[in-house]
Amino acid sequence: MKQEPVGLFEKYFIIWFRIVTERIWTGDKKLRNTAIAIFAFGVLNVFLLTGSIKDFFRLKEAAVYDIPSTLYGLTDKGEYEPIAEYYKFSRIPVRLEQLKPEETTLSPDNRHKVIQCFLSTEDNSFYSHNGIDLKGIARAFVVNLMAGRVKEGASTITQQVARLKFLSIERSIARKAREAWLAFLLELAYPKDKILEVYLNEIPLGHGTIGVGAASRFYFRKEVQDISWGEAAILASLTTRPTQFSPIVNPVSSMNKVRVVFRKLVENGRMSVADAEKEYAALEEYYTNLNRSPNDSAFSDRLNRFPYVTEYIRKNLIRSIGSGRLYNGGLKIYSTIQIRHQEEAEKALLPALQRQTLESNQRAFRNIDAFDDLYGSGYSLIADLYDLPDFKFHISRTERTFSSAYQEDLRDEFFALNLLTGDDFLGDLIDKNYTTQTTKDHLLPVEGSLIAIRPETGYITAMVGGSGFRSDNQQIRPFQAFRQPGSAFKPILYAAAMDHSGKNPDPEKNVTPATLFADSPLQYLMEDGDEWAPENYSSEYSGFILLRKALEQSKNSVAVRVLEQVGLSNLMESLRGLLQLPGRDIPYNFSVSLGSFELTPYELTRAYAALASGGKTVNPISVLYVEDNAGNVIKDFRKEFDEDDRKQIISKEAAFLITSMMKDVVEEGTGRGVLSYGLNRKAYGKTGTTNNFRDAWFVGYTPELVTSVWFGYDVGTISLGRGMTGGKLAAPVWGRFMARALDREPHIDFPWLSEVKVTKKTVCRMSGKLPSSQCHDLFEEYFIPQTAPKDICNDHGSSWNVAETKQAASTNVIHTEKKKQEKVEKLTPSTKPPKRKKSVFSGDEEIDY
């Protein structure tokens, strides 16, 4: 048994329908009432199919454009300057007031030539109809009927605006009905000039351009206000099929369509035949000199001065504000990138990577037939016996040979022929093949990274992500390349160790710059039964050596002994705080001391930035804030990196000591290459080279800037070549960048120096202890007061002389800001080491070949 609807609306509709029906059939005029009812229901049905109440509220969207967003960087003067644009389609909004009236007498209509061309070709009666041109519809119907195909459209400019703003491009009666309905509403809501302005800014004109402003700049490299009659005719010719009639893709078809535009101008009385022929002939020079790829697009013309920076910021902004708003919202994005720093970073790193690619000379494996030749038959037998799958890469030798010959010899010839013929399909195929091909001449590119951060603010001022931003090379290596830091990790380890000693003083285990360690071979038996024997880079050992000198010479054995003496568990909290690795942890083994676990350049630079800021964590930031098109701040990233979020991980005293030690690395140790380009300010840093020369690092800072430079292959098992150390490859690039990036900036000191209190003592260079009367080689060293040495050196005479020896130098706590210019004496360099032997973890001392 059927049941009545239970919904309130259904009940009300049924009751209302019954009442209306009774009234229609009540009385003498039943036929008339029936006709009225049928007509009313028909009108209601048409409205429901073509219109909606929501349409009235959407009309305001018609005058709102999707505008590209702009990324800004800082100049030397502290002013913001555009460095990139974000959009999917190029659009340059043009106001109708910008299109000033014509001063010539070529046309009785004095409106701008662009307006006249579009009105003549698209809707000559635009200013006289109410959104729907009934005469035009009838004319188009007859023309199309006689031609047997769709030859002429019947949409007015207002209808085209309705379609462009609110509808799809499908061909259907329902869509045309909605188009007419929306056109009618637009005519009620906006004046004619505004509708025309929207049209000129919304019409797609090919090659990724939207509107006459972007199209004029793409096709003619001019602003739309400055184009000629012929160029305006070209724009008007692109409204129906932009690709087919593009002057870049099909010049002949374009010229024929432009002739039609001039004929329309003549037919509509806007131009005489003579003037039209003269303006058309003037276009000959444009077509003759047109020498552009058919696959050019406005996207390739977009402002993008620093692609790696642009891509990194784009990815971050999409997560925070969304892609739609980024590409179409007309946002103004104010970044921390300093244009001078970024330019110098690219000048320093990119040529060095290109040179190193040639010098390392690592070629991609091409003899892919070797396995098939030697073991192919055997593999087939084994595959049959054990049901193994076929090769994943299964291609005939003939096809491989042709592919190689095509990429090296034939493809460039095909590309030249395609430019002459203008075939769009073939051009797309060739372009796609170019973008998917590997490096030229099959040389594997040496990749690299450079990232610079202000230690006090965390502002990222420069970033280079590799050897060149291409479709096949878009990895942002400062953030995505996980590599072993090698000896570049030692300053972090030593800083944590000295900080622990300062907070937990123990005369037997204190670690200071003057602590004496044995530089001798080590060997450990691991839990799995394997042996681990870390070696120095040169396989040469110096016996007992002070920690300051060990860092200068990058002694691996000393780094392991420091960790062994203090204990990894005692340092883990400080190491975690300096590295800030959410979701990852530091491996709990002694190889940590040699930088055996992987970090990104960004993570390592951030840890050094903590040292440069007096032991406080640094929160790097690349975008300060984002404004909408009206100038309102919609996202302020500065609030996320407030000063209150910074934590004191190690003491300022420990940060000062390791900074002092890294100064020796630059001036006397493995980082001397930093000084190659005349850096005229104090620098502190450390080199790093990993096993088999797979990675080369230099990470360091001045009071103004912290920077890391890394060299290596993306495949982490490939060597850069024998002798390719951090001191040879990365240090000179670091020095060049820092010297030129900071050239115009004033010299400053670390702002936290005034708060540092250390003890300065004169100690014996041999033992690091207080000198006795027998000690003659002395130098001054800094100590955290709790860890200052108290023992007197007895390494130069008999034990009975020790008791009579008095302290040679008094202890005094000093403010380092007043005496920061004092220089610690250096040890006499030892003789050059012999050639390196095989080692498990490499240091990066200088080596003589």
TrEMBL record:
<comment type="similarity">
    <text>In the C-terminal section; belongs to the transpeptidase family.</text>
</comment>
<keyword id="KW-0133">Cell shape</keyword>
<feature type="region of interest" description="Disordered">
    <location>
        <begin position="811"/>
        <end position="849"/>
    </location>
</feature>
<dbReference type="InterPro" id="IPR012338">
    <property type="entry name" value="Beta-lactam/transpept-like"/>
</dbReference>
<keyword id="KW-0645">Protease</keyword>
<feature type="domain" description="Glycosyl transferase family 51">
    <location>
        <begin position="112"/>
        <end position="265"/>
    </location>
</feature>
<keyword id="KW-0328">Glycosyltransferase</keyword>
<dbReference type="Pfam" id="PF00905">
    <property type="entry name" value="Transpeptidase"/>
</dbReference>
<keyword id="KW-0573">Peptidoglycan synthesis</keyword>
<feature type="compositionally biased region" description="Basic and acidic residues">
    <location>
        <begin position="815"/>
        <end position="826"/>
    </location>
</feature>
<keyword id="KW-1133">Transmembrane helix</keyword>
<comment type="pathway">
    <text>Cell wall biogenesis; peptidoglycan biosynthesis.</text>
</comment>
<keyword id="KW-0808">Transferase</keyword>
<keyword id="KW-0378">Hydrolase</keyword>
<keyword id="KW-0812">Transmembrane</keyword>
<dbReference type="Pfam" id="PF00912">
    <property type="entry name" value="Transgly"/>
</dbReference>
<feature type="transmembrane region" description="Helical">
    <location>
        <begin position="33"/>
        <end position="53"/>
    </location>
</feature>
<dbReference type="InterPro" id="IPR050396">
    <property type="entry name" value="Glycosyltr_51/Transpeptidase"/>
</dbReference>
<protein>
    <recommendedName>
        <fullName>peptidoglycan glycosyltransferase</fullName>
        <ecNumber>2.4.99.28</ecNumber>
    </recommendedName>
</protein>
<dbReference type="InterPro" id="IPR023346">
    <property type="entry name" value="Lysozyme-like_dom_sf"/>
</dbReference>
<dbReference type="InterPro" id="IPR001460">
    <property type="entry name" value="PCN-bd_Tpept"/>
</dbReference>
<feature type="domain" description="Penicillin-binding protein transpeptidase">
    <location>
        <begin position="448"/>
        <end position="738"/>
    </location>
</feature>
<keyword id="KW-0472">Membrane</keyword>
<dbReference type="InterPro" id="IPR001264">
    <property type="entry name" value="Glyco_trans_51"/>
</dbReference>
<dbReference type="InterPro" id="IPR036950">
    <property type="entry name" value="PBP_transglycosylase"/>
</dbReference>
<keyword id="KW-0511">Multifunctional enzyme</keyword>
<keyword id="KW-0121">Carboxypeptidase</keyword>
<comment type="similarity">
    <text>In the N-terminal section; belongs to the glycosyltransferase 51 family.</text>
</comment>
<keyword id="KW-0961">Cell wall biogenesis/degradation</keyword>
